[in-house]
Structures are given as C-alpha cells and as structure tokens.
Amino acid sequence: MIFSLSLQAEEVGERWGTAERERKYYRLVDLPIPKNLVIEAGAFCDLPDGRIAVGTRHGDVYFITGVDAANPEPKYHLFATGLDEIFGLSWKDNGLFVTHSAELTKVSDTNNDGTADRYDVVSDAWGYGTYHEYAFGSKFDPKGNLFVALGLSSSYHSQELFRGWILKVTPEGKSIPYASGVRSPGGIGFNEHGALFYIESQGPWNSACSLKFAKEGGFMGHPISYNWYKYAPNMGDAPIEPKNGSSTLAESQRISQLDPYAVVFPYIRMGRSLSGFVVDQTGGKFGPFENQIFMGDYTQSIIVRATTEQVNGVWQGACYPFREELSTGLLNVKFTPQGRLISGGTNRGWPVRGLKPYALERLEWTGVTPFEIKRINITPKGFTIHFTKPADPKTASLPENYRVSSFTYPYHQGYGGPVIEATDAKVTQVELAKDGMSATITVDSIIKGHIHEFNLAPILDLDGETLVHNFAFYTVNEIPK
C-alpha cells in the first residue's frame, strides 16, 4: 500500500499549493455514503420532486435527498440497476434517460412504487465491445435532442460502429451521426452561451485536454474513426487526413470540418484527465462566477473553471484554477438547488491524487469573495482581465506587473506532446477601470494558435491581498478585427 501511494503521488504531479487559502472561500463538505453502498458517481440529474439522481459506474441509479442540509446525512434510494458505466442522466417525459456504455435507455417507474420497472431502448445505434468504450450523454437541448459522445475502442482504435463519434438522438428516437474525430471524451453538454461542447482527454492528436465546440458535421481532430463515414451519408465524404506534426490552426484552414480546439488546458498545470462539466447558473449563490463552466479532473482530483467567447465566428476562451483537495478522481459535477457544487467519482482504473476509492463531496461558498481573475476576454490589441474585487491602482496600473507569455503544442498522432514555440510578450500599456474591476492591457504580440499564459502575482486588491490564484491561460484561435 505504501508503495502504491508513493507511486500515485509521483504520477499525478504537484499541487497548486493554494488549498489553505481556497478553504476560506469555498468549504469542502463530505456527503456520507453508507458502508454497504458503492457510489462511483458518473452522472447527476435534478428530479421534479427536488431529489437528485446519481448514476454510477456499477450501473445503478440512486435518488438522493438531503444533499443541501447544513450537516448532511443524505438518504439513498436505489431506483434502477443492471445498467453499465453510467455517464449521462436527463429527466424527460416521466422517466430518466440514461446514457451508458451500450445504449441510451429510458428508465421509468410505471406503477409508482418508487422503483424502476420499465427499461426502454431509445438508441443502441453504436457498437460496444471493450471496457474502455465509454459513452457520455448530454442534457436535452431546447428542441428535445440529446447528444452522445462515444470514446474509442481501447483508447486507440475504432473497432465498433461509430466509436469516436458524436450522435444526435432526436425526440422521435432517431439517431443521427453528428460529428467524427472524437478520442476519449470526459463529458458533453452546453457552454454558457448554449452551444454544444465536449471535453476531450489528452492522447493521440491531443497534446493536452481541451474543451471543444461540437459542430454539426464537424471533425474533432482524431482521424481513426473515418471508417464509419460510409454509415453516415448525412455527413458527406470523410475529411482529408490531417498532417502529422502540424497545428490545429493550420489544419483547420486545410480541413473545413475542423475547428481549432476552443480551450486548451495546459497539461498537469490545469489537469490531466478532465471530466464532466456544468455551468454556474445559481444566481450568485456560488459566488462571483455566474455563467462560468466548472469541471473536475480525474487524475489531479481538482476542480477548474473555464469561460468561452466567439471571435470571428470561432470559439475560444480561457481556463482558471479553482479548488484542490478533492478526495477521489472526479468524473462529474453538478450544482444543487441551493447553489452548492456536488462532485463525485472513483479511483478505479487509473491512479488519482485523492486517496478515497470513491466519494461524494459538496463545495459551498462561504460568502467571502476571493480576489481572483474572474474572466479574460481578448481585444484587438491585447486582453481585458476582469477581477472579482477591485484591484489596487498602485499595483494594477503598472505594465510590468502583468507577465504574459505564450506557447503551443504539436498537433500530431503521438500520445500527448511537449510545449513548443514558447515566447514572451511585453505589456506596453494598462488601462485600469475606474472601479478597479477590470484592466485592459496592450501587448506587443498576440499569436494565433498559441495558449497565452498570464501571471499577475504582484497585483493586490484594496486590502493588500494577493490573488488566490495568480495565473490563467487563454487559447487564441482568432484576434478580433
């Protein structure tokens, strides 16, 4: 046991080292699980009666009450069982739509005894042959469509139908191929603007984890699943092959179906295996990050934030550190009715930083606002950095206190990839807003296709406090005209 824990610490890398300060603003609360239950949570869903449904990797669905109590002692009711590796839950038409490895199933309680008694196949339009062929389901869009992101076979191949694809399942139950080129998704859903995105894991053709826009007819970057285009006549011909060792920006200009990856999460610094995500729509109950994307990381046992924007018709955005110290590998997150963030997961399968084999935990805002980089937006000549609290004019008005550098990763068929083309940019001007809540900086170089790193360590708030997390990363695919 001692050996395995030391190996785990070596494999997952270093922490940010900010946990002590994070606790002041976001409290971590355990949601106890009875000793006779194994809850490896892969999906969450609100129910009409106020309970929360949780789907597990063992294929069970539990209904939970009491997650928002001051001293939580949740009650767990087994609603359904016999499913497999659940990574999607959504409620509609008096039933749960469960996305699991082999199919999308509607699970219903027709005699109202509190336990599922009907399991209807909604879609089994994809193949399933190995343990690693996970399927991730979205919530319903406004038209009643649900989207399923399908991981590759054994992580590297596409040996079963539509492995490495995204499918759209219509309200009538029709399954339509939607996008190809997926590698190993960790979650699929809608960003703060309502557009469909999914999380992609680091691996072949993906040098780091990323948040990608899933456009209809699109190619998500990994060509191994081209073999199924003959079964997707609505998608047209397969895209041309990407050039090994190029860049997503260059290849997106050659391959019309490919968009450069919207938000790239620097490897290890911002996670190694990002998972399910959710948008903060709590109306301020979770603090100053309304309409931002929150997601967990399986390996690092951390939670990070992201924001997106569309520039010249292309999606891009930034990622920010948020909270470490989670107890297990995170598979999914969800906001409760009272605006707390529930996380769940497991350590089964791969090494993780958290020491528990599985856990349910709740992050809650203490009511004290942290001094943080709230959001970064690009401008024609630089960036606007928004803060959660007014910045001190003496430190926030000095160009030398804003350190900006950039780098990128190769777009290649190898597993992961090194940082390349690292460069520094010079901040030549700072315009601090009168209220101190934002600073617009001018830089001498913005490089398309690069991840721009911001280090704002010298900047203080009006109380003389430094930023809780003084760094963030913005992926530049386009520069505003």
Radius of gyration: 22 Å
Q: Termini separation (Å)?
A: 57 Å
CATH architecture of the largest domain: 6 Propeller
Indicate the structural class. mainly beta
Total strands: 33
Across the major sheet, the strand order is 19-20-21-22-33-32-28-29
Helical proportion?
under 10%
The stretches of 5 or more residues where confidence is low (pLDDT under 50) are: 1-13
Name of the top-level CATH class of the largest domain: Mainly Beta
Domain count, please report it.
2
**In CATH, what is the homologous superfamily of the largest domain?**
TolB, C-terminal domain
- β-sheet strand percentage: 35-45%
Chain-averaged pLDDT: 95
**Distinct helical segment count:** 4
Backbone shape: globular
List the helices and strands and how they pair.
Layout: H1 2-12, H2 19-25, E1 26-30, E2 41-46, E3 52-56, E4 61-65, E5 75-80, E6 88-92, E7 95-99, E8 104-108, E9 118-123, E10 135-137, E11 146-150, E12 166-169, E13 175-180, E14 185-190, E15 196-200, E16 209-213, E17 218-219, H3 248-254, E18 263-265, E19 274-279, E20 293-297, E21 302-311, E22 314-323, E23 330-335, E24 341-346, E25 358-365, E26 373-379, E27 382-387, H4 393-396, E28 403-408, E29 420-425, E30 427-432, E31 438-443, E32 451-455, E33 471-475
Parallel strand pairs: 13-17
Antiparallel strand pairs: 1-25, 2-3, 3-4, 4-5, 6-7, 7-8, 8-9, 10-11, 11-12, 12-13, 14-15, 15-16, 16-18, 19-20, 20-21, 21-22, 22-33, 23-24, 24-25, 26-27, 27-31, 28-29, 28-32, 30-31, 32-33
